[in-house]
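LAB NOTEBOOK - FOLDING QUEUE
OPERATOR: T.R.
BATCH SIZE: 2
PURPOSE: Compare the predicted C-alpha cell outputs for two unrelated chains run back to back under identical settings.
PRIORITY: normal
REVIEWER: second-year student, initials M.K.

ITEM 1
FIELD SEQUENCE / FIELD STRUCTURE:
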Amino acid sequence: MFVNPEGLHNPAPFGYSHTAAVPAGSDLVFVSGQYGSGLDGMVVSPDFAEQVKQAFTNLGIALAAHGLDFSHVVQLRTYVVNPDFEKLGVIGQAVGATPPTQTVIGVAALAMPDILFEVEAVAARS
C-alpha cells in the first residue's frame, strides 16, 4: 500500500511515506482535526509532546468508532505551531514504524491559543 520510490529520500524517520495506493472499492473515512484535548474539550497540557500523544489517542478513538485503527490510515495532515526539527521528531515517533503519507503544515496559531498541534486523517477500509 505504501511506496517510497528509489530516487526520493527515506521519509520514514520523519513519520511519513511518499505515496499510498487505496484498493478499488475501499470505503474512505475522513477524520477531522484532532488536538490534545480531554473530554471537556480543553487542552490537556501546554507540552507539545503531550499534546501530540493526546491528539493521536483522540484520533485512535475516532477511527475505532468506524471499526478502524491506525493501520487503516493512508493520509495524515498535521498542523504544527512554529515547527522545528525537534517537533518533527516527536510527530515521527507518534506516527510509528509504518507511516502513512503525511503533510506537515506550519502555522502561526490554531483554533485556540493553547493548541500547538492538530492531526486529521483519511483512512481506507477494504
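ITEM 2
FIELD SEQUENCE / FIELD STRUCTURE:
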Amino acid sequence: MSLIKLTIKGISYSQTQSGAYALVLSEMDGVRTLPIIIGSFEAQSIAIALEKEIRPPRPLTHDLFKTFSDRFSIKVTQVIIHKLVDGVFYSSLICERDGVEELIDTRTSDAIALAVRFQAPIFTYENILDKAGVYLKMDEELIIEEDLESDEIEFSLEDELDDNKNYTNISLEELNEQLNEAVENEDYELAAEIRDEISKRS
C-alpha cells in the first residue's frame, strides 16, 4: 500500500479532552486532515521545535534525543504512522546509521516531535486516512486554518498569563530583555507572547 506524505497543519487545544491538544496533520496532495490527540508536554515540544526563534536554555527530552543521535551519527529519515487501533495511532521511526536502516516503535506524538527536529518527512497509509481522516471543502479549510491560528496563540499563552497584559507602553529594547529572561526561566508561553508583540512592531 502506498504511503501518503503529511505536513503539520497546526496545534490546537482539545475541546473534548481536558489538558490535551489536537495535532492536525494534512496530506500534501489532497484535502484530508488527520487530527491526533496528544499530551501537553508533546504539544509544547512540537511547538517549540516549529518556533525557530525560541531556544530553551536547557535541552528538552526530544532535543536530547536529537543531540544524542547526531553524536553517534544516527539519522531519523522518516516517520510512518502505520496503525490505528481503538482511536490510538501507532508509529515507527525509520533510522539510519552507516547505511543500515532500523525501525523503532514509538508514540506518534514523540515521532512527530523528532520528525520536526530531524526535518524528516511524515507518512501514513491510505487506509488510515480513509478511517480517521477528515475531508474539508475549500471554504471549510479556510475556517479551520483561522481557528487553528487562534488556537495556536491560545496554546502559546496558556491560562496563567494575564489576558489584559498590555505591552504598548513597553519599549522594544525592554521587550527583548523580557524575552531573554522568559527563555532563561523556561517560561515558553510568556516568551511566545512577547515574541508575537515584537513581531507586530517589526
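REVIEWER COMMENT (ITEM 2): The longest helix spans residues 138-157.
FOLLOW-UP: none requested
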